[in-house]
Amino acid sequence: MSRDEILNKMQDIFRENFDDDTLVITDSTSAADIEEWDSLEQICLIETTQSYFKIKIPVKDVVALRNVGDLVDGIFSNKYVSTK
Amino acid sequence: MFDKNKLLYVRKKYKKTLLLQPNLIDKKIAILSGSTQEIVISFLEIFLLEAGIRPTFYLGSYSRYYEDAIDIKSEFYNFKPDITYIHTSYRNLQHLPQPLDTVEIVDKKLNETFDYFSTVWESISQNLDTVIIQNNFELPPYRLYGNYDRTHFTGKSNFISLLNNKVAEYIGCNENIYINDINYLSSYIGLTNWYDFSAWYNYKNAMSIDGMIITAYNVSSIIKNIYGKVIKAVMLDLDNTLWGGVIGDSSIDGIDLGKESAVGEAYHDFQTYLKEVKDTGILLNVVSKNDEDIAKVGFTHPASVLELDDFISFKANWKNKDENIVQISNELSLGVDSFLFIDDNPVEREFVETSLISIKVPEISTIENYIAEIDRYNYFEKVTFSDDDRKRSEYYKQNSKRDVESQKFTNYNDYLKTLEMTATLLPFDEISLSRVTQLINKTNQFNLTTRRYTDVEVKNIASSDRYITLYVVLKDKFGDNGIVSVVIASIVDSVAIIDLWVMSCRVFKRDLELLIMDKLVAKCLQLKVDKIKGIYYPTLKNSIVKNIYKEFGFTKIDENLFELSTIEYKKKSLVIMETI
To answer: Which CATH number characterizes residue B262's domain?
Structure first.
């Protein structure tokens, strides 16, 4: 999967999660940009991402995430533990 | 097991569609937490909405369950919840045994831990009318001594088992508090799937998403049960559901049942399970495409655990199954939403599920899995187990005898006289309380106001002189029907307002309501109450009583309110004798 495809999939996950079909996300999107993005949404997003890409993101990496771009980079570079 | 897609990924859209359902009942639920609860709440909300309950939540601050419960000025008390769920877990056990502890120290830790929790329960139950649901504790994430952890007094596994026993013992002998058994749930999904260490350190989630789903589902099972959303009857297919093979093709010797074969033994065990289900008060019925005579022979098989007598209604014919189920619903006067349909054939399951939307239809695969596939959804969840439950099938059996009798008469009143009915009508007392509460919360048809009450509320009403209360036991020549009707009337300025009147569908059309109104009026006259006001709130299910106040001669005041002068009322009951 290319980096763009991963970003596109993340957009789908975000749109479904926030029930907003017009939502556009970029590498720099973070919790500060989406009003509804609270701790519950954060967990749901991570859980959905882990389950879709069949990965497990270790604690230290979750803590280090600054924005969507960091997460896409991590998935693209196979940084996370595979659960396939 | 659960549709994670609906719970997580499309939860917002799904919730919106659930909120569009008609006749949702509103309930306030407080969650006192020992860990992060937002996700558990979002799952619980979905499960309750699926059952027609719309919750409003109060969420205590993170890990402040003890303070919330002890401070009666807290937001929590202000919220006045119907249900209080205390979600604690292994993560909240601050004083677990350490290897160097003495026996005395571990003993002290155990008692102090238990006292800490029982203080919470007692503070809440003394200061609020609420139902408490309390998690017990899951086994620890590691075993310091391996297997020896279970026997040594400093073993954490040992400690948690002892603590769970104390919790169960307390809850077993107190009312209005129930265990959410996460000790079972965590072993059901396995501790490796239960604990999610990353989620604990990142978000302070005490358990994984799967753990939270099953926890929320089980809490919803308890809440549904409290508000009478229960399964009352099971509709069973026969061929390849209760025995292996097709009896019409192979005759009785050809069906697979009994311990001689692996498959036959599995069917034997499934029948044994159903017999136990029946003995808890669930009504078993047959809905099968078969010739009736041939189908009935199946139960004469020497290995058959179930007997013909275990079934209330037996429909073996070639009609569509939904028609038969609707007919059973009429015979038993029970709604299809309280029915469970069990059939090995996926085509029949889909047909019935599509035709009768509110019926519950578990997906079953092959006979060895049936029990587990049905059991995991808590269809037969109970919050009490009364004498009435134990005798329920018997009551319904007697009813079919009464039906046969009634067909002999052309005049219905003549028939009623031959039943030789007697009734006792008494104010609520200690022995009747649990059945009274159960009847109030389970009755949907003969129910004028559909108000639901907790044990505590009923108890308070029983001991107050501002209320007239009645519970009614009806007997006849076929047997004792048990407690079948309940009335609560509040007295305000010499007017009695009927807040609640319910009657079990088992005794409809027996003229019992006449005797009850006679009694209520007599009580009012004794107390110098000269007016009775009756309320009728229509629901989808209670149209059977929509004209009842008019029939008694009440004057209509507005849409929902009716009024009667007690002095002008004339006694109406003719066929039932009141006894003490």
So the answer is: 3.40.50.1000
Q: Which residue range(s) make up the domain with B485?
A: 406-578
Q: Please count the CA atoms within 13 angstroms of the CA of B57 that sit on its side-chain side.
A: 20
If interface means Cβ-Cβ distance under 8 Å, which residues of chain A face chain B? 13, 16-19, 38-40, 42-44, 47-48, 51, 56-59, 62-63
- B12, A62: Cβ pair inside 8 Å? no
- CA B26/CA B511 separation, integer angstroms: 34
Residue pLDDT, tens place only, B528-578: 999 999 999 998 888 889 999 999 999 999 989 999 999 999 999 988 999
CB B245 within 8 A of CB B267: no
DSSP state of B94: -
Which tokens in the block code for residue B97? 């045994």
Of A13, A43, A57, the CB nearest to B39: A43
Across A1-84, the runs of DSSP E, i.e. the strands, are: 55-56, 81-82
Rounded to the nearest 10 degrees, the angle between the axes of helix A68-76 and helix A3-17 is 130
Q: Which two tokens stand for residue B367?
A: 């006979």
Distance, C-alpha A58 to centroid of its chain: 14
Say if B80 is an interface residue toward chain A (CB within 8 Å): no
Q: What is the ipTM of this complex?
A: 0.78
pLDDT over threshold 70, residue B1? no
Q: Compute the distance between CA of residue B355 and CA of residue B343 in angstroms, rounded to an integer.
A: 15
Residue B206 contacts A, CB cutoff 8 Å: no
Number of domains in chain A: 1
Q: Which residues 6+ apart lie within 8 Å of B172 measured at CB?
A: none
**Per DSSP, what are the bridge partners of residue B284?**
B234, B311
Query: Is B245 in the same domain as B211?
Result: no
Look up the domain containing A52 and give its range: 3-82
Secondary element (H or E) of residue B215: helix B209-226
Contact B554, B566 (CB under 8 A): no
Query: Which chain A positions have a beta carbon within 8 Å of B11's beta carbon?
Result: 44
Q: Which two tokens stand for residue B115?
A: 């006292």
From edge to edge, which strands make up the β-sheet containing B25-33? B53-59, B25-33, B83-87, B131-135, B177-180
CATH number at A46 reads 1.10.1200.10
Report the alpha-carbon distance of residue B172 to residue B421 in Å, rounded. Answer: 37
State pTM to two decimals.
0.79
Chain B CB contacts of A16 under 8 Å are 9-10
